[in-house]
Design the sequence.
């Protein structure tokens, strides 16, 4: 029985190694299709793609700094109803954690799914990626991972990782069936494979990679990286809290919001199938706006912006995994990841919950106990 | 300057707290007119966005009140309400809303006297606190 194995790498050509791994999965793993980041043939853009043709695996690009969407939503769509065969999904840790939240909300299942997680090197914002990849059409991804792995945690060129990634304390895919380790591993010659579930173990046995111990340097490397990220996160959250600690400041923070609701569309854990903000509830009559305008003297159009954002926090903050797609989706560059993560930190700690930690913990708003939270009852002493 | 008269939006459950308010009325107990009651079927029906909307529209306080634990007409609506209030308090406090502005209480149908006392106390607390920060000119 193996729980850790190694995959040979030649000259730090990680993409070839990962493509070989995907090919083996499709060939020997009883897998019907692989969902993986795939470099589109028409442009240097990477999108989650469902692949059944082994020849197409040559374009998978799981180490790219492109993160155009959180694939949890795609995996949810692929697993909500039976697909007829097993799917292996190559996901970032934040995608796995978001998907777990969706499974708990009955918007996905893990039955016909194998999750392959890779140590996450982080990503650029959409805008930065497009600019950067355009300038580096040749081997953009290779350049990225070589630099990140060499410098441990700094991005390539003058482009910084997205704020979400700089403050992400979950670089290792702990929720995967099989995880692929890069940190603290000599990636010039090998990649580490770890089976983290029974299903992962069975699959890893089928693939017959040679057994290997995790290198001693790995625990330390991961620990250092996480500590660095937590420090960055705490600074970010403190600053955001300070920048939004009154309604006036929050209104200023959200001043350029045009109620496009892109942040909700991009959010993997905004779970309502139909958002109340696009229903008739908020389709106000002209006369209503006039009444508000007359009452207050001025009414910002579109209206209900702050109501929308605070309501969204009430809905999704306990499930927020901090993937940063909200910031990516904002047409006016409002730092939404910082705001939502700040709220999420508060609400998740209030309920002793951590989004994506486990499939067994119920979402806080889906359960209750008879004796709890007495502190919120009454008018205080 | 005229004396500050707060507006407090009260979401009362039909079965307990609203009945208690009725009882207070028929018993000729008085409580301040600052309390604007909205009758809900259950405290568990108070959608968080009703609370947020009330506070953003300039209500100086919101009070949600339902049946005592174990007495909910719908078995457990009040327990769900308690979690939602916990969640709301956590979020609203980040944006400068004082904890006194959102309250949750349990008042049984027979407790007309308690209802009058609690409403009196809520109004006093909000008066001491002053007007809400949301009383700005523009709807946001």
Sequence:
């Amino acid at each position: 029985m193996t729980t850790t194995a190694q995959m040979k790498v030649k000259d730090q050509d990680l993409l070839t190694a990962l493509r070989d791994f995907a090919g083996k999965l499709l060939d020997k793993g009883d897998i019907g299709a692989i969902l993986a980041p795939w470099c589109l043939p028409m442009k240097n853009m990477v999108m989650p793609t469902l692949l059944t043709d082994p020849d197409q695996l040559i374009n998978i690009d799981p180490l790219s700094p492109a993160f155009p969407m959180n694939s949890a939503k795609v995996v949810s769509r692929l697993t909500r109803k039976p697909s007829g065969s097993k799917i292996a999904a190559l996901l970032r840790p934040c995608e796995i954690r978001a998907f777990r939240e969706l499974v708990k909300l009955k918007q996905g299942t893990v039955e016909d799914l194998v999750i392959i997680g890779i140590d996450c090197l982080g990503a650029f914002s959409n805008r930065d990626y497009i600019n950067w990849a355009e300038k580096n059409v040749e081997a953009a991804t290779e350049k990225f991972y070589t630099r990140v792995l060499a410098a441990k945690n700094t991005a390539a060129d003058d482009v910084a990782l997205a704020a979400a990634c700089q403050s992400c304390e979950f670089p290792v895919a702990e929720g995967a069936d099989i995880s692929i380790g890069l940190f603290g591993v000599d990636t010039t010659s090998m990649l580490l494979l770890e089976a983290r579930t029974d299903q992962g173990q069975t699959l890893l046995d089928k693939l017959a990679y040679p057994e290997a111990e995790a290198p001693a340097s790995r625990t330390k490397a991961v620990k250092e990286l996480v500590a660095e990220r937590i420090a960055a996160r705490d600074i970010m959250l403190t600053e955001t809290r300070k920048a939004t600690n009154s309604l006036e400041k929050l209104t200023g923070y959200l001043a350029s919001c045009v109620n496009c609701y892109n942040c909700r569309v991009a959010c993997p854990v905004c779970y309502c199938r139909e958002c109340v903000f696009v229903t008739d509830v908020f389709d106000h009559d002209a006369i209503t706006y006039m009444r508000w305008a007359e009452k207050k003297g001025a009414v910002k159009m579109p209206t209900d912006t702050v109501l929308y954002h605070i309501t969204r926090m009430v809905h999704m903050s306990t499930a927020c995994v901090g993937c940063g797609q909200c910031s990516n989706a904002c047409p006016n560059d409002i730092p939404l990841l910082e705001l939502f993560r700040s709220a999420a930190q508060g609400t998740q700690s209030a309920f002793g919950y951590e989004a994506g930690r486990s499939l067994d913990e119920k979402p806080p708003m889906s359960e209750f106990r008879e004796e709890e939270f007495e502190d919120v009852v009454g008018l205080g002493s | 300057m005229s004396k500050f008269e707060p507006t407090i939006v009260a979401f009362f459950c039909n079965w307990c707290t609203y009945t208690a308010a009725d009882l207070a009325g028929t018993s000729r107990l008085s409580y301040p007119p600052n309390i604007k009651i909205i009758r809900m079927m259950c405290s568990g029906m108070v959608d968080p966005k009703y609370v947020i909307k009330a506070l953003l529209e300039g209500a100086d306080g919101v009070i949600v009140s339902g049946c005592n634990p174990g007495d909910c007409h719908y078995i457990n609506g009040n327990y769900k309400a308690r979690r939602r209030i916990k969640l709301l308090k956590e979020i609203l406090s980040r944006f400068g809303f004082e904890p006194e502005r959102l309250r949750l209480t349990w008042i049984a149908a027979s407790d007309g006297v308690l209802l009058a006392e609690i409403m009196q106390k809520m109004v006093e607390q909000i008066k001491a606190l002053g007007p809400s920060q949301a009383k700005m000119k523009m709807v946001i």
Observations:
- The beta strands of chain A are 4-8, 33-39, 46-51, 87-91, 113-118, 178-181, 190-195.
- Residues 4-232 of chain A form one domain.
